[in-house]
């Protein structure tokens, strides 16, 4: 069972619909007990960083997400959900993130000819020695974001080139992030969600 | 680098897809979910749904339609038509829409743009502008092409971006349904004036029209309905030709 964290963000149900379509057992929940029992967690996200952290705090989800991720439970952050995995964001001032991945979330620099938000289908250059980098290498996925993460190269599984190199997939052990929306990226996006399911099966967290 | 988007537009009337010429003479095209799934197969980059006879009664039908499409089609969905409040937006986004599009309501209640952007983020808020050429300028027309208003389209585009619009969907009414090509002059003027993504709509009739659009303007997406609905053009052949002409597509 995958737990999709429900914290009043726009696209939570679209992630659920994609998992349902794939036949992956899942539930939408904000209940810490259900989260602890799950084989893996998905943290979706649309909107602003500070507001999302506040919504997680109001539902007493910050501690449980940190504890579970540090205990090795597989976790996938999507779009803003990926950004929340990092130490901090400079969106509207400086806000602490979940601190599960090292790095900061900063604004995409404005350059002539490059519009912000970075919106639309962009091509991923994936590291083929990474499970997710392999799935998405050379494939275009759907992005909508104005901020991007800065983290050490060893945590980056794929990037896309938008004037700066935008990390599109990050991973450190059991914690994975996708800057694009796999649930809105057609067949390859669904393949990416399936790859996370396989990672969860390989990790076999709940029976450990 | 980011790719140019090809977007089929589905005009929805009481849960069915319809298509007219110059906004009238509606013909039934089919079931929205089936059509959406077929376009996903073809490689469409996004879908726009316009509720063309939006009333309070039809609102529920549209929410159901989007709910159904979003459970089977996994790409960005934009929904417009008859959105008058933040609650309307919320219902559609909750049903599975990724963006909502405001047209007449944006003119009558510009504060809706800002309220939507503050609640859901700018990237969720598309402002649709229907435009008719008037002498040397472009006039904004609302109410599905029925009511001309005293607004210059380029000035209005700047205003809505300042108010919080994250994207513009601009239809040339003179070209709409004519298959005579996109109004390149209109999009050149708009892209010079604002820095948000622009979807060009109205007039697509041939592959060359898409090539002209993406090589002669910097718009981000081309939208069409009839040429795709009636199979005169397929998305793969449009994209193949664009690729040959050096336009980045998925």
Short description:
The complex is a heterodimer of chains A (about 210) and B (about 250). By secondary structure, chain A is an alpha/beta fold.
What does this structure look like?
The complex is a heterodimer of chains A (208) and B (250). Chain A is of the alpha/beta class and 208 residues long. Helix content of chain A is 31%, strand content 32%. Chain A is built from 7 helices and 14 strands. Chain A starts with a strand and ends in a 5-residue tail after the last helix. By secondary structure, chain B is an alpha/beta fold. Helices cover 38% and strands 28% of the residues of chain B. Chain B has 10 helices and 12 strands. Chain B has an 8-stranded parallel beta barrel with strand order 1-4-5-6-7-10-11-12, surrounded by 7 helices. Chain B starts with a strand and ends in a 6-residue tail after the last helix. The model of chain B has no long low-confidence stretch (mean pLDDT 92).
List keywords for this structure.
heterodimer, A: 208 residues, alpha/beta, 7 helices, 31% helix, B: 250 residues, eight-stranded parallel beta barrel
Instruction: Note the overall shape of chain A.
Output: globular
Residue share in β-strands of chain B: 25-35%
Class from helix and strand fractions of chain B = alpha/beta
Using only CA atoms, what is the Rg of chain B? 16 Å
Number of helices of chain A: 7
Total DSSP E strands of chain B: 12
Task: Calculate Rg of chain A over CA atoms.
Answer: 16 Å
SS elements, strand count of chain A? 14
Class of secondary structure makeup of chain A: alpha/beta
On the 0-100 scale, what is the average pLDDT of chain B? Answer: 92
Q: What is the string of helix and strand elements of chain A?
A: EHEHEHHEHEEEEEHEEEEEH
Mean pLDDT of chain A: 94
What are the segments of chain A in which pLDDT stays under 50 over at least 5 consecutive residues? none
- Biggest pleated sheet of chain A: 8 strands, mixed
Q: Cα distance, first to last residue of chain B?
A: 10 Å
Strand order of the largest sheet of chain A: 2-1-3-4-14-13-12-9
Basic shape of chain B: globular
Count of discrete alpha- or pi-helical segments spanning 4 or more residues of chain B: 10
The oligomeric state of the chains shown is: heterodimer
- Helical content band of chain B: 25-40%
N-to-C SSE series of chain B? EEEHEHEHEHHEEEHEHEHEHH
């Amino acid at each position: 069972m995958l737990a999709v964290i429900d914290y009043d963000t726009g696209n939570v149900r679209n992630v659920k619909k994609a998992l349902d379509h794939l036949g992956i057992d899942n539930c939408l929940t904000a209940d810490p007990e259900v989260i602890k029992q799950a084989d893996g967690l998905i943290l979706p996200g649309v909107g602003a960083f500070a507001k999302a952290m506040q919504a997680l705090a109001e539902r007493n989800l910050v501690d449980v997400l940190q504890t579970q991720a540090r205990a090795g439970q597989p976790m996938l952050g999507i779009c803003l959900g990926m950004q929340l995995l990092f130490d901090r964001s400079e969106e509207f001032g400086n806000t602490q993130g979940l601190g599960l991945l090292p790095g900061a979330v900063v604004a995409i620099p404005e350059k002539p000819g490059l519009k912000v938000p970075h919106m639309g289908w962009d091509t991923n250059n994936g590291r083929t020695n990474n499970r997710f980098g392999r799935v998405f290498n050379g494939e275009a996925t759907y992005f909508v974001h104005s901020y991007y993460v800065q983290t050490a190269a060893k945590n980056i599984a794929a990037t896309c080139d938008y004037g700066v190199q935008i990390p599109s997939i990050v991973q450190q052990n059991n914690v994975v992030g996708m800057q694009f929306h796999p649930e809105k990226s057609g067949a390859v996006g669904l393949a990416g969600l399936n790859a996370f399911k396989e990672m969860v099966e390989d990790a076999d967290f709940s029976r450990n | 680098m980011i790719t140019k988007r090809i977007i089929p537009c589905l005009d929805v009337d009481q849960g069915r897809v319809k298509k007219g010429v110059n906004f009238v003479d509606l013909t039934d095209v089919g079931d929205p979910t089936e059509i959406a799934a077929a376009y996903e197969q073809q490689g469409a980059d996004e879908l726009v749904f316009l509720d063309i006879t939006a009333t309070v009664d039809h609102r529920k039908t549209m929410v159901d339609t989007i709910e159904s499409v979003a459970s089977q089609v996994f790409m960005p969905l934009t929904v417009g038509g008859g959105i008058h409040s933040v609650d309307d937006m919320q219902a559609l986004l909750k049903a599975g829409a990724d963006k909502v599009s405001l047209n007449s309501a944006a003119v009558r209640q510009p504060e809706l743009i800002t309220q939507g952007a503050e609640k859901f983020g700018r990237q969720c808020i598309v402002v649709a502008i229907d435009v008719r050429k008037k002498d040397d300028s472009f006039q904004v027309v609302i109410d599905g092409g029925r009511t001309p208003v005293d607004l210059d389209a380029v000035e209005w585009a700047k205003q809505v971006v300042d108010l919080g619009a994250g994207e513009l969907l601009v239809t040339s009414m003179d070209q709409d349904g004519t298959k005579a090509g996109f109004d390149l002059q209109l999009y050149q003027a708009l892209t010079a004036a604002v820095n948000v993504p622009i979807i060009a709509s109205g007039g697509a009739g041939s592959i060359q029209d898409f090539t002209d659009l993406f090589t002669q303007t910097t718009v981000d997406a081309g939208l069409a309905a009839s040429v795709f609905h009636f199979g005169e053009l397929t998305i793969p052949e449009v994209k193949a030709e664009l690729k040959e002409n050096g336009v980045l597509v998925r």
